[in-house]
Phosphatidate phosphatase APP1 catalytic domain-containing protein (Deinococcus grandis), 362 residues
Amino acid sequence: MFKTAFKALLPLLERGALTADRAFSGYVQPRRARGKLLLQPYVGWGTPGRVELRGRVLLPRTVAPARRTDPRLRNAQNVLRRLFSREVGGVTVSGVLNGQRAAAVSDSDGYFTLEFTPPSPLPGGWHQVPLQLDGREVQASARVQVVADARFGVISDLDDTVIQSDVTSVPRMLSTVLTGNARTRLPFPGVGALYRALTRDGEARNPIFYVSSSPWNFFDLLWQFLDYRRIPLGPLFLRNWGMDLLGGHGGYKHGVIEQIFQRFPDLKFVLVGDSGEKDPEIYAEVVHRHPGRVLAVYIRDVTEAHRDEGVLKLREEVRKAGVDLVLAADSLNAASHAMAMGLITPGEYRSVLTSVARSYET
């Protein structure tokens, strides 16, 4: 009964919160825009003929670079500074890619999206986009991933798939997320070696996309974590902090994956997630929606036996569609399957094996 009543009230709560937010923004945004501003670009992505770059305009915050020796209290303070960001709307942001200029105005949450359609096709790989707030000296540089000539792509969750977050236990998750930083948070054994093998860094790179329910406020923390742990970098798709987080995890993730599949209609994908939330169900539906587009599904086992039973049932359904779903406790089983499919080489498999073995030794 409570759940039914809450679902009925949710639209009213959302409309009330939206009205209050607009009223507050209408008052405070013009005043914020007159002060010192911070330009926070995210990671652009696209094809040789179309690129999208998102970012945010904020008031500056003081977050010192992460160190392994930072006390837990300082980490918690930095997390709170990220969460309670102060957004600035109504500001024009411009950028230049391959000689083409694009501009957009930040919305009430500070977000802006630049869209580029270069007159000549861009080469695959990473590109730099200089950004500027019009009429100000504030500048930044954004990275853009252009996908061309890839064998396949990788779509991966982050929490409890790449980074240990303990999402199945709320107290442990809060302790991990609130008191850790980019240097102290831990990856799962072998995940860096596995992802480097799948993306083939240094060759015709296979793109990787990270889709997470974490808020955009944590973008810099997650990006620094990936870079520090030598895990291949790629566009991050996160969620807006606030009422948007009340929406279903599955619906949000479905939408992002559909967007990626539509942008690259000729590209096949490997899907990587964990058993802690709804990744197996989401990926199973993606397999059925897009026959022949999914090469394999790798699910990290982070839950108890009763959840595993449900995932194994999904595995049988997915197998009927011609796709293997691998449920494994570490990266090694996924690497073994990937090697058998020819997605990675025997040498790359041995690198994953060595990485996993070393992690258990320390």
